[in-house]
Design a protein that fits this description.
The protein has 6 helices and 7 strands, in the order αβαβαβββββααα. By secondary structure, it is an alpha+beta fold. It has a domain of 135 residues: Beta Polymerase, domain 2 (2-Layer Sandwich). The chain is globular, with a radius of gyration of 17 Å.
Length: 195
């Protein structure tokens, strides 16, 4: 495949963002219609929170992360599969694809509430009840989202926290809301907002 040129590049950029938006809307609509408790997490939740303050500061993300309770997984599978999604479990992850052969990074990723992603993490994920409507979807509350981001603390998580700091949603009053390990991580980002 040859590289895109000219307007193809811009068209691909716009298309990539729109596909994620459509996947987010489709998945959350399915879960809401089935009355399955859930909350949008990850980059889309960050983008939703950032958009409440500054649309120009919104960063795009390539996948959709949704937090559910493990006991609801069968109901999630049933609802998603009856609406055309394809469930896959690989490498310890549950994902829902929109088409056969689709890459996992283009999927809906499932996270489990009240469970640690890795056994070495200091805190489990928050519950789906720690959420609120942001725009048209239910997203993790700002505190719950920060907890996940500070627990994982990968490069992209630090970038997402800095986005929340940049638009003024998180400030020097926030570290006191977390246990010492996460408070120290947040303070380090507040002290180095440009990286």
């Amino acid at each position: 495949m040859s590289p895109a040129t000219g307007t193809q590049v811009l068209d691909r950029m716009v298309s990539a963002v729109e596909k994620v938006r459509q996947r987010l809307v489709r998945a959350t609509t399915v879960l809401s219609s089935a009355n399955i408790p859930h909350a949008v997490a990850g980059g889309n939740a960050v983008a939703g929170w950032v958009a409440t303050v500054d649309e120009a500061a919104v960063r795009n993300t390539q996948d959709v992360d949704i937090l559910i309770r493990r006991e609801d997984l069968d109901a999630v599978k049933s609802a998603m599969e009856s609406n055309g999604f394809i469930h896959r479990h690989s490498a310890g992850l549950d994902v829902f694809l929109e088409a056969p052969g689709q890459r996992a990074r283009d999927a809906v990723h499932i996270l489990f509430a009240n469970e640690k992603v890795k056994p070495t993490e200091s805190l489990a994920n928050p519950d789906v009840a720690d959420s609120q409507i942001i725009g048209t979807f239910n997203a993790l509350s700002l505190r719950a989202l920060l907890q996940i981001k500070l627990t994982a603390f990968r490069d992209k998580d630090r970038m997402h926290v800095r986005d929340l700091i940049d638009v003024g949603l998180v400030d020097q009053t926030w570290p006191a809301r977390f246990p010492p390990e996460l408070a120290a991580r947040l303070q380090s980002l507040l002290d180095t907002p440009d990286g």
